[in-house]
User: Which sequence fits this backbone?
């Protein structure tokens, strides 16, 4: 058998040495291999090398990778591809299989590292530690070109074996170095006798260690010191308590702290929280409640029950004697007003007095008996009533001054004031031939009386509803005028109890201020009840006043509208129109305006609780300009503004402006003004004509007769009620020229000329005995008297004129 084997070996060696007569090319070999794979002769995968001239099996690739790892310990996958000459994809795939099959290998960032490599690295680190005592893990990771977490995970299982060191906070320390730092931490901690933050202690230790290690030393983290401190505390090498991980309180301090609290509390029966904070106790209430269960916590102090008993006896005496006490004057200075209030509520005598309404607590610290308060209040209440009456009267004056300031925005009429007065005085002196004296103007006013009763009940109801709508606002405004201010109340309290003056009226915490705050609402309620009683008493009178005013305006305003219509006839004659407007404003308009202002003033006084004497209903109201302005300013708010506007229009030149402001004021007052319709106009004209006819029939004054005849002629010719002054008679007669026949117009013109001549003579007469004008005046008057029947016949007819 051996000979046959040797023979085969010789033949194989011979076959290898014999040169082939036929050589295969690379392409033939590749095709041959592919054919063998197709025939399943080669039933395993073959990998090409990067040169393409060699084949390698996957198993051989694994073996070569494992060989390189065992030889180098740490090899890059990219380097393996270059060394073996196989594509990187196949190398990475087989490398992963190699790492998975061997637990001693790891694939990190494209590198395969074995445990033997880490063992050698650990031995090198241990040698370095013996030289420098500490090494940073980050520094090692940088040198090894791996992550710090990987280095730390590799070193932890080798600490104490291959690496004789302690890993703390990313640093490796030798046992000797740790022992030295432990001694430093122990010494520094034992030198602390007050509560301290350990973070502040580690800073100087870091500086000390840095100086000890020199320039090459690595800074020590606070966590290293903290871990050493925690170990020492656990081993009871230091006594104390650690709170929140960093706040250290030595036992010696805690003992001294409790002794100080016990000493202060036992001597004073209280202890302020501020004192507890100075002793370093932050949660003072919890500390004291756990130590003294019988104590009571207040706002700023903690007290013993004996403090309550002491204050209770003092306050009980003050309540029984109908007096008062300031608890802060009895308690120590460290007590606040909140503390005083809380301790007072704990006193049995105060609790029973409050329940029985025998005492009050004011300003948190003052205890005042109800009898003491009642004695002062009874005195002040009487003086407050007198103050209210005086203030109610003065309020109208104060309101008048305020209204005058707000009324400055109302445009002034250019034809009022001194200019009007100056013009009037000048006209009286010159007395031109066409002027009839103003004394005769009143003769042109109608003397008829008409009753317009329709709609009075409805207007009264509307006035009441509008007045009621503003009731609350008016009350609020009036209350501010009659209620005594705080200063007044405090002054009266001082007058009753002079000892309160020492506290000062400006001190907001004084008993004087608190008593004033208590009594002022009581006074307000008392004064309101009194005013309510006054308003009830005046209610009937106010209602009667409103009804009477409505009746007066119903008739007067209709007449005013009637007279206003006659002014339309003279719109083309500007000068005459101005005279007629002014005359109507000074006569009829002034009368109804005075009536309205006068009654509104009385109504305002009644609302403010001011006594007003009863006046006769038939008494006429005659006011001058200043009196009207005063009454207008005494009214309230918008009513005052509209009243001032009304007064302004009385001094103006236009009746329509007066009518507008009069309507506004009446509407603001809640009054209803009737509008002149055709039916009412006919009724009023008929009555006015009848009244004028009666006056013309009985008139004996030749001068006054002319104005009445002209007015009656206007009713007959124009159906208008004309109110003309003496100086406008000439213009009024000229407007009748087209309406009268020549003889009637001539009679009227000649009578007017004679009247003007008579008035001129009367104006120029001196009244002395040697005055020669007396005969001329007598002659002219006789002439006019002889012409009076002829003048009457123009409006009455011949028969009636002769009878007159």
Assistant:
């Amino acid at each position: 058998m051996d000979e046959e084997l040797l023979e085969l070996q010789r033949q194989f060696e011979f076959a290898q040495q014999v040169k082939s007569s036929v050589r295969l090319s690379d392409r033939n070999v590749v095709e041959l291999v592919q054919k063998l794979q197709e025939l399943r002769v080669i039933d395993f995968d073959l990998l090409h090398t990067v040169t393409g001239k060699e084949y390698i099996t996957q198993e051989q690739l694994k073996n070569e990778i494992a060989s390189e790892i065992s030889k180098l310990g740490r090899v890059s996958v990219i380097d393996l591809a270059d060394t073996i000459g196989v594509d990187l994809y196949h190398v990475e795939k087989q490398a992963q299989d190699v790492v998975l099959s061997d637990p001693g290998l790891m694939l990190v960032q494209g590198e395969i590292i074995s445990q033997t490599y880490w063992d050698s690295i650990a031995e090198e680190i241990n040698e370095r530690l013996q030289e420098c005592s500490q090494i940073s893990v980050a520094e090692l990771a940088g040198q090894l070109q791996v992550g710090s977490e990987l280095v730390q995970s590799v070193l932890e299982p080798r600490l104490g074996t291959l690496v004789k060191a302690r890993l703390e906070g990313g640093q490796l320390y030798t046992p000797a170095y740790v022992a030295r730092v432990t001694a430093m931490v122990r010494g520094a901690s034992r030198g602390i006798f007050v509560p301290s933050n350990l973070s502040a202690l580690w800073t100087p230790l870091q500086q000390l260690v840095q100086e000890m290690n020199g320039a090459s030393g690595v800074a020590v983290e606070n966590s290293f010191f903290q871990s050493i401190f925690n170990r020492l505390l656990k081993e009871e090498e230091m006594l104390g308590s650690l709170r929140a991980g960093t706040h250290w309180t030595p036992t010696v301090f805690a003992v001294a702290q409790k002794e100080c609290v016990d000493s202060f509390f036992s001597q004073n029966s209280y202890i302020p929280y501020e004192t507890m904070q100075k002793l370093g106790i932050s949660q003072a209430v919890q500390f004291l409640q756990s130590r003294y269960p019988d104590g009571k916590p207040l706002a700023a102090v903690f007290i013993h029950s004996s403090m309550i008993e002491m204050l209770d006896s003092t306050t009980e005496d003050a309540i029984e004697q109908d007096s008062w006490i300031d608890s802060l004057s009895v308690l120590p200075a460290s007590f606040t007003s909140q503390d005083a209030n809380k301790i007072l509520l704990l006193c049995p005598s105060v609790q029973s007095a409050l329940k029985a309404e025998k005492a009050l607590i004011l300003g948190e610290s003052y205890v005042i008996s109800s009898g003491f308060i009642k004695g002062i209040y009874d005195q002040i209440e009487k003086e407050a009533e007198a103050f209210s009456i005086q203030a109610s009267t003065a309020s109208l004056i104060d309101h008048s001054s305020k209204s005058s300031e707000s009324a400055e925005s109302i445009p002034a009429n250019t034809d009022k004031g001194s200019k009007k007065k100056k013009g009037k005085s000048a006209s009286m002196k010159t007395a031109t031939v066409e002027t009839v004296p103003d004394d005769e103007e009143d003769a042109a006013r109608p003397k008829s009386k008409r009753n317009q009763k329709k709609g009075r009940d409805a207007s009264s109801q509307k006035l009441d509803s509008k007045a009621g709508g503003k009731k609350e606002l008016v009350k609020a405004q009036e209350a501010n005028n009659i209620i005594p201010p705080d200063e007044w109340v405090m002054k009266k309290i001082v007058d009753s109890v002079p000892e309160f003056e020492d506290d000062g009226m400006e001190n907001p915490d004084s008993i004087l201020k608190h008593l004033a705050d208590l009594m002022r609402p009581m006074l307000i309620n008392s004064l309101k009840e009194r005013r309510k009683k006054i308003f009830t008493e005046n209610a009937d009178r106010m209602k009667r006043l409103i009804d009477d005013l409505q009746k007066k305006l119903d008739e007067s305003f209709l007449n005013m509208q009637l007279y206003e219509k006659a002014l339309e006839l003279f719109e083309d004659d500007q000068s005459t129109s101005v005279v007629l407007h002014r005359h109507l404003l000074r006569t009829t308009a002034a009368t109804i305006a005075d009536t309205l202002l006068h009654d509104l003033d009385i109504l305002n006084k009644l609302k403010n609780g001011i006594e007003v004497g009863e006046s006769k209903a038939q008494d006429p109201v005659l006011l001058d300009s200043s009196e009207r302005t005063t009454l207008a300013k005494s009214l309230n708010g918008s009513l005052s503004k509209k009243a001032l506007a009304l007064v302004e229009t009385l001094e103006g030149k236009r009746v329509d402006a007066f009518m507008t402001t009069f309507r506004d004021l009446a509407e603001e007052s809640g009054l209803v003004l009737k509008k002149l319709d055709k039916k009412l106009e006919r009724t009023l004209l008929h009555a006015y004509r009848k009244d004028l006819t009666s006056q013309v029939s009985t008139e004996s004054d030749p001068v006054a007769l002319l104005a009445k005849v002209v007015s009656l002629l206007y009713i007959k010719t124009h159906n208008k009620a004309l109110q003309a002054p003496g100086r406008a008679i000439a213009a009024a007669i000229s407007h009748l020229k087209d309406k009268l026949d020549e003889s009637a117009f001539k009679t009227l013109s000649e009578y007017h000329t004679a009247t003007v001549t008579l008035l001129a003579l009367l104006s120029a007469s001196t009244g002395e005995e040697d005055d020669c004008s007396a005969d001329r005046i007598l002659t002219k008057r006789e002439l006019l008297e002889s012409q009076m029947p002829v003048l009457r016949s123009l409006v009455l007819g011949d028969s009636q004129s002769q009878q007159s």
